[in-house]
Amino acid sequence: MAVVPTESCCQRYDPLAAWRTGDGPGFDVFTYGTVFLDIVFTGLGSLPRSGTEVFAEGMGSCPGGIANLAIATSRLGLRTGLAAAFGDDDYADFCWRTLDEQETVDLSYSRRFAGWHSPVTVSMAAAGDRTMVTHSHEPPLSASEMIGEPPRSRAVIVDLDGPEPIEDPRSWASKARAAGALVFADVGWDPSGDWSAQLLGRLEHCHAFMPNATEAMAYTRTDTPRDALYALADRVPLAVVTNGVHGAMAIDSTTGDEADVPALRVDALDPTGAGDVFGAGMVVGTLCGWPLTHRLAFAGACSALAVQQFGGSLAAPGWGDIADWWHAMRESAGGDAYHTSVLRRYGFLDDLIPAKSMAAVRRAAATIARRSDV
Fold first, then answer.
1. pTM above 0.85?
2. SS3 breakdown of the chain: % helix, strand, coil, rounded to 5?
């Protein structure tokens, strides 16, 4: 994996450069969550059975959890702020250093706590899927206690099922929304199996909601991803439903657009963090004011590039990776209908990808050993 360029003479590519003003928000994206130390084992022929040991061909270590999203947005050129609890152990030192120094994520609203054990996840990837084991404790402070008055941001990304409801005016996300931030909401798997439809009431306080098809159908009590999309579009201005290899669909009531974009054909190795990468792409496109079709296509390309790599935040693409992929597609000799469709669908990238002379960010190796075998 290529390392983030450090050429001080080159300007980091900024997709929002045309929107910058001296009195604008300090952050493009601000979010809160739990940072895990992810230890990822790859190249397993199969997962270990009880009482056995297997050897992995590769491994890597990187910040995970909410760090997947923060790194994905930062690599796409957004000024990203993250509030999270960090311990005082070596795991925390590594995660803090990687986020702050390597990935340029602003941690000024994060806190370190003595004696608090850093959350850790071990992920084992085999046969295109992964199995995880996690150890974690609740953070010493709540989100709003840690953040206080949130910074001015163009967008915030929240967990719709988070412990601090966005409808509570005392919550950090509610304060950020009142100050002008667009609220992008996501939601995770419901282990209880209840899929409470009451949760969707919180969408009236959000600008966008981006669940996957299974989550969307479960919460809306519908039988198809499209029916789920229509149900969500009645509740939130920008409704997006991702559907794996079938692509993604969305309705944006602020522009009157509806779009359905197929997924790229790729060999998926590891889906970890793919949803975060897709969400980061949607935030970029929305803040830049792109047409809905372009937003979905861009987010889908980011996700497709991510699943071809192992390991959460390690896999999040930067503009350099996107430029590499697009140049390869333009220069390839394929003339079939699929290739022609991709060229037509992504032609808008010709006006977006950074010039080769700029310091376009690419994926960076992140490992405690300072060398990744992934």
1. yes
2. 35, 20, 45
